[in-house]
Amino acid sequence: MSRSYDCADAEQRAAGLADAASTLRMSQLVVLPTDTVYGIGCDAFVQSAVNALLAAKGRGRDIPVPVLVGTVRAATALVENLGPYGQDLIDAFWPGPLTLICRANRSLSWDLGDTKGTVALRMPLHAVALDLLKDIGPMAVSSANRFGQEPATTVEEAGKQLGEAAEVYLDDGPCTDRVPSTIVDLTSAVPRLLRRGVISEDKLRAVAGYIATDGAPQPAASGFEPDPKPESAAKADPDQD
């Protein structure tokens, strides 16, 4: 039976984080809050756990799972490089609602889906998520919903969709910001906006100088984090985030 913890209570928060970390180390799934919507996550380096996450959501490998990190150091270890603008964007907007698509470090043994050698990275601006990520390390995390359904903004909504697919639910109350993260592709010479979100084009350009837009879509009218099919298999699912 799934276990739920009220993170507004200090004792339950501590117990929940400890249980979640133990659960993740056993290659099982956890629902956690972020600064956008609730996510369902697992150890990014355990293929069976990633497969279980995809199965819980009811989607295939053609939409790879993004990765959340608790530190910039963890992020840089996962990629070949950040290019000429990645570090500046991280310094300006992490932790926060900016997802960066980078070339994955080719020495890593992981399988997030059909990524074509890329990885989508983000550091969420949420204390519970960051505490868990700093303890367990990088997590494969996607929005806590069945594929094609609206992402959960409360633990109750996540539980209705995912049930006992997740062993642990960390409840930190309703999500307050339904606008999704902005997604920027750093895999080419010029940063490219893949999805408009919380961080505006003007703010990105103030840091990087130039951002190619190529008709990047607006967030869904509901403001929810979607589970869109990427432009190509190389572009990972934008969040969770």
Automatic annotation (TrEMBL):
A GO CC term assigned to this protein in UniProt: cytoplasm
Listed EC numbers: 2.7.7.87
Superkingdom of source: Bacteria
GO biological process: regulation of translational fidelity; tRNA processing
Record keyword Cytoplasm present: yes
Residue ranges annotated for the YrdC-like domain, each copy included: 14-199
Subcellular location: Cytoplasm
Keywords in alphabetical order: ATP-binding, Cytoplasm, Nucleotide-binding, Nucleotidyltransferase, Transferase, tRNA processing
Name this polypeptide is given: L-threonylcarbamoyladenylate synthase
Basic and acidic residues bias spans: 226-241
Pfam families reported in the protein's UniProt record: Sua5_yciO_yrdC (PF01300)
Enzyme class: transferase
Entry GO MF terms: ATP binding; double-stranded RNA binding; L-threonylcarbamoyladenylate synthase; tRNA binding
Major localization class: cytoplasm
